[in-house]
Fold this protein.
Amino acid sequence: MACLHLPATEESRKKWELESETCMHKDMEKQLKGYGLTTAQIFYRLPDHPTILQTYVWQDYDLAPDFPEMRGFLKFWQDTLDGPLHSVRYVHRKLISATEWRALKGEFILH
């Protein structure tokens, strides 16, 4: 899910700030639920030139080892897009885990 876009006006900037904050909260919630960042390099054939391979990079938070988000995207690709899939390479990394997260109370005052 893409969370960032460039705001053009003051009104859109305020909306962007609210959407960004909401997105950050959702991302943090996913990470605390065990999601990690998955990056996939998708190789596909061009519809008009099937001998040529093209690449597409996809990235989202996902759950290993089943990868429901990535599998859903690949199903969407196969059902909707014309370029047939050749292969997919992916990596997955948990950014934080519940044992690394601690809620702290405190305040730092900087000059």
Notes: The longest strand covers residues 36-45. Residues 35-95 form a domain with the Ubiquitin-like (UB roll) fold (CATH 3.10.20). Residues 10-32 form the longest helix (23 residues). The two ends are 38 Å apart (CA to CA).
